[in-house]
């Protein structure tokens, strides 16, 4: 231990000149009186001897001012202006570094030019603030200002911390003033230890001009803080009374490199990318967060998720950000970088301005920011471009452009979640020249009681889906579609910036006896006197006995109603209203049919759909052959784990071939009339494969299936299985996370994944048994 001498009982006289009857002002060091060498040492907080040749000093000082460290051979820190931020210290100078660095690291230490700096004009700046943009600071004469019209506005308490500068950095300068009455000193002016000198101040001698000297172990001690609320004009001098030296202090060094550093490494009082911290014997130290320099060349990667090992430790134990370490006695510790995770820099620009910058691990996925806007233009999507302007040399850019025929990345085509990032990429917002929405008018046919027109507006880039059309009804008719200029209109079309306003006209189809005949043939009963005879009625083998028998009774009743209607009808046939009523009754009856299915049996093949997993991916199949192939330990495509039964589909052969006949009503006009009344009793679940990222997607949404199947990146693998449309007893939910999709029947699993693991619960995809 080394101890500074006590002050004499006689109160020392202040060395600060008096500026009024009650106030002295302590001088601040002027930039003009400091040499280049001294200024560099002050700026970096370095209290060590500087021995570099003066000729090399300017370049090194510039390096520190720019917030850079010596780079490794494969690192190319960004030179892009949008990645940089400049902090201006009034008229004293400025420093430039990267957005995301702390003020202290960017400036090379805690404090600048010996002044107390402020961002808001009222309080001292926090040197641990993360700089996100260009920032201007000004000198703060004193803080916690009161009403300037009162006499107390000139009543300040002056603090002199110059006696600590040998051991500690002074964020508020050697001298600062506080408005009298301040209840607590700002932590932003309190000293910060200089790292690496094996010295820590353990006791401070506080000598107020208007009080007795006293000792505190910390300047956060309440006794010290109360002096700020002391008498107007008081002056408080603080010196180091007791300093723990190398016998009681250990030094911890955490290595960085040219691609990044741990926060504090550039402001610890040393001049390199390594953090050096003094810690008392048996004290604790926590590894701070890592700052990674952004990169702007195609194939130079940022470094994230660093892992350190301790020098002279043969155990191989690894340390990461946030890990706490307890120091021993007489044992300095150095932690060297073992590895980092390579990552790419992805930037999004709108009208020349950077709107988002992301660091993405190799092979992972970026995320789209909110859609931007430019007055007078319609946003179309994001265009991927390379950092160096040579798109052909950037495989990721090429993959994005090939993903969709438009060459753009949009929320709709979901390319961002399907193309892995394997290079640095820039996205530029693309706009069309249409400044107004597209007007779509839905108009009815000409008949008594026709519906009024419905008008809707759509933005360029959006889609017109069948659900956007009005759900009109008309007695004895079904709404079977819409025409545009006399031709059938196919929904799912995307509006572009050149799409003109247009009108869609409703197409009605009148119910007839043919409609009833077709509906009776959908789930046919050949002989109602022998309902359960599978030779006479093959459909009897497909449904549970009780539901089939109930259906046969309804079918027989409707069949009789139809016969009576035809008998009593005029030569022109049954009315459209009667035909509509009979089709509706048939639909209500077949919607209650329950397919035969296994009940909770975990069996292979048939109708039991299994869930398999491998490395976070999932696969679903009822094929015995496919399950055996994927779970094989000898196949190169094997290694999957069979998690067992997920749900049951209607009982049938492995390819559900006989169920296909129930999946639609045919392609005739009569079939479209029936489809307007009811969905088919089975729903196909399609399987698609993404050739870019290897993802499989299962969907029962015909629009989603059609859209993905039309994209070059997707292979349509057809129907995976069929599910009951109306009588399913198990909700099968779909969740998504990035480009991954998951089917689940477990509500607890869905809750945990969607609330704690970053998955999005999309809702019920379909029903099963």
Automatic annotation (TrEMBL):
Q: Where are the transmembrane segments?
A: none
User: InterPro entries given for it?
Assistant: DUF5648 (IPR043708), InlB-like_B-rpt (IPR013378), Listeria/Bacterioides_rpt_sf (IPR042229)
Q: Where is the DUF5648 domain?
A: 614-768
A Pfam short name: Flg_new
- Gene3D superfamilies per the UniProt record, alphabetical: Listeria-Bacteroides repeat domain (2.60.40.4270)
Q: Where in the cell is it found?
A: Cell envelope
Please give the GO cellular component terms listed in this UniProt entry. Answer: cell envelope
Chief subcellular site?
Answer: other
Recorded protein name is: DUF5648 domain-containing protein
Q: Which organism is it from?
A: Bifidobacterium callitrichos
